[in-house]
Amino acid sequence: DPTGLAGRGRDTVTAATERRLPAADRQALEHVAGRASGLGSGPVVPRLLARRLHRGSVNLEVELAGPQGAQQVFVKRLRAHATARHQHHIGGSDRPRLKGVPDPATKLTNEAVAMANIENLVAASGRTDWFAVPVMAELSDADTLVLGRVVSPTLDQQIRRGASPSLLQPSVRSLGAWLQALHTSAPLPHAR
Q1: Strand extents, DSSP E, the chain
Q2: Can you give the pLDDT of all 192 residues of the chain as single tens digits?
Q3: Which of 9, 10, 148, 182 could be joined to 134 by an S-S link, Cβ 3.0–4.6 Å?
């Protein structure tokens, strides 16, 4: 399976399904394709590989195909009700909070900053067994974050494939070292 989606509990999205996508998802795909770079000077065509709904976002796995190649990206689009939920929290709630709830655009920016920080941490470590998902674009006008895709078996995938404990041990150690480095790094301004 060239998309890497087989056996992961997801259906491959057909062209018919893509036509039935909500308008906001279609707009996000067009927005991402319009801003894609490095795939040639001709048109870039987005192809939806998978779509998942989460509480505050819609996550799309997309292949962008251009005249000089293709690239898979992960697109996180904030859902409209996330903005409505934010307005509810601003208006008051009985639930005490240590920090205010950021508006959706700020939340997206904070997430992009945190992802870029992790990317810098991984790059500075010099370790070849650590990976970070690269931030490709923050499309604040479309409430969308575009992330690159790391093509490497994750620890979860290794476990699901039945890897022996002796084969998992280096990955678990690497994960522990990565978490230690992350936890000892300076907190980001929005997390203080």
Answers
A1: 45-53, 57-66, 69-78, 135-139, 144-147
A2: 233 333 333 444 445 455 678 888 888 888 888 877 777 777 888 888 888 888 788 899 988 888 888 888 989 988 775 555 555 554 555 666 666 667 777 888 888 888 899 999 999 999 988 888 888 888 877 788 888 887 777 888 889 999 898 989 998 999 899 999 988 988 877 766
A3: 148
